[in-house]
Amino acid sequence: MDFNTFLTTYEVQIRLGFFFGVLAIMAGWEVRAPRRALRVSKLVRWSNNLALVFLNSLLLRLLFPAAAVGMAVFAADQGWGIFNYLAVPAAVAVVVSVIALDFVIYLQHIMVHAVPALWRLHRVHHADVDFDVTTGARFHPLEIILSMLIKFATIMVLGPPVVAVIIFEVLLNGTAMFNHSNVRMPRALDRVLRWLVVTPDMHRVHHSVEDDEANSNFGFNLPWWDRLFGTYRDQPRGGHEAMTIGIHKYNSPRQVAWLPGMLVLPFLGRISSYAINRRNWDTGSGSQE
């Protein structure tokens, strides 16, 4: 069995191993050194957020059995994509592919904040009234499907090595749980780490109810894109303990903390001013709906 065959055969086990490993580490850290007090009990939030994760995983397996790794194998077999045309060292192809895929996720994140119909889906993620390790995987099923289709298109154009796709998927899932965690770390350590990876204090700003703060720090894994494209914000104006997490209009725990409410949230209400609305940035008084 060659290396690529091994990776494709055991891809699910590899990803699940990292998922549960990071989840356990961050959950333990949250218990020992929480950053903020939670508004909703862990039992309610974890049972419903993880139920949504399970539903999304089942749906993806039914719709896309081979997932992103299968698309990478198919692209290689067909000779599709830049790295299947160009003769470059394998290590270079892996590194560049991981960085390029991360950049696409950054652009996708901005897109779901900018397009009203897509913001309807993405606000399920933002409507969580607390911010902890399970928030990192809390997405509406339709957004998860859209994200997978965008990955497929990127893989077809890029032609990344299979190992690069697996590394990217593991990093994306792991860092999403890390940077959504309700953990306290020394300020000096945070300042150093956020040059290399999106930290919890960096990403928590993005979950503020204030539009100008929610429209910053879009990165999920690499922090460079926010600094490069001017979407970086160092700290929330009110401080991390005092800031309000969630969305102004949908802030009832009963409405947004339970699975049925999450599934119907995209179809409620009317988008009168969606997340990216520069008219309100100067005052920070905009309202996410």
Structure summary:
By secondary structure, the protein is an all-alpha fold. It has one domain.
What does this structure look like?
This protein has 289 residues and is mainly α. The protein has one domain. The protein contains 15 helices and no strands. It has helices spanning 3-9, 11-32, 42-63, 67-78, 82-85, 90-114, 116-126, 141-158, 162-179, 187-193, 200-204, 211-214, 224-228, 253-256, 259-264. The longest helix has 25 residues, at 90-114. It is globular, with a radius of gyration of 19 Å. The model is unreliable at 281-288 (pLDDT under 50).
Helicity level: 55-70%
Q: How many beta-strand segments?
A: 0
- Specify the structural class: mainly alpha
Strand content: under 5%
User: How many domains make up the 3D coordinates?
Assistant: 1
Taking all Cα atoms into account, the compactness measure Rg is 19 Å
- Encode the helix/strand succession as letters: HHHHHHHHHHHHHHH
Q: What is the end-to-end distance?
A: 52 Å
Average pLDDT taken over every residue: 88
Number of helices: 15
| Unreliable parts | 281-288
Major sheet attributes = none
**What's the shape?**
globular
List the topology elements.
Blueprint: H1 3-9, H2 11-32, H3 42-63, H4 67-78, H5 82-85, H6 90-114, H7 116-126, H8 141-158, H9 162-179, H10 187-193, H11 200-204, H12 211-214, H13 224-228, H14 253-256, H15 259-264
Helix pairs in contact: 2-9, 3-8, 4-8, 4-9, 6-7, 6-8, 6-9
